[in-house]
Specification:
The chain is α/β, with parallel strands linked by helices and 177 residues long. 32% of the residues lie in helices and 25% in strands. It contains four helices and six strands. A five-stranded mixed barrel has the order 2-3-4-6-5. The protein is globular, with a radius of gyration of 34 Å.
């Protein structure tokens, strides 16, 4: 065997293991080897990303706790069905089971009807209160009477029909400052 022929064989034999490792390396994956393709992984990643973005973009996921002011009023539809806590002044008492609150002197928010889902102590006009309850979509006298087992005078509530309202479960009278 000539020296040149022997060098060719040696070179070929030395390249063979490197080629085998290189081809084996091309077959490695970071996920399961069977039953998964690139489209499955991409779709799964997109689904997770869309859910994360939706949760971050939705302010209604966090319950509101603050003053009944322009910010709450402007976002009230985002809080429908959620429990919130609002602070405001009582501006009118309509019945033993209902009253109205309004924003502070620096706001132009509409009055908000409050229906007592659970009995709370009597409140006087002008008292500052902190209320916790569920924001409801649209006030309907007959539906509220049936849901809460109370009798309301239709005329007293005519101005609130179709407006959002608060079904309150607790109230705290705030001290004068």
């Amino acid at each position: 065997m000539s020296k040149q022929s022997w060098m060719k064989k040696a070179a070929m034999l030395s390249i063979l293991p490197i080629t085998a490792f290189g081809v084996a390396g091309c077959n490695s994956t970071s996920g399961p080897e069977t039953g998964t393709d690139v489209e499955d992984i991409v779709e799964e990643d997109e689904l997770i990303d869309e859910e994360d973005v939706a949760e971050e973009a939705d302010p209604a996921l966090e319950p509101y706790d603050g003053a009944y002011d322009q910010d709450f009023y402007d976002d009230a539809e985002n809080y429908v069905g959620q429990e919130v806590t609002v602070s405001a002044d009582v501006t009118a008492t309509l019945t033993d089971d209902s009253f109205v609150i309004a924003g502070g002197p620096d706001t132009t928010v509409d009055p908000l009807l409050v229906i007592e889902e659970q009995e709370i102590p009597p409140l006087d006009v002008g008292q500052a209160v902190k209320l916790t309850g569920t924001v409801e979509q649209a006030f309907d006298v007959a539906a509220v009477e049936e849901e809460f087992g109370i009798d309301l005078e239709d005329e007293l509530f005519a101005d609130y029909v179709g407006d959002p309202y608060l079904a309150v479960t607790s109230a705290e009278i705030l001290e004068e400052q």
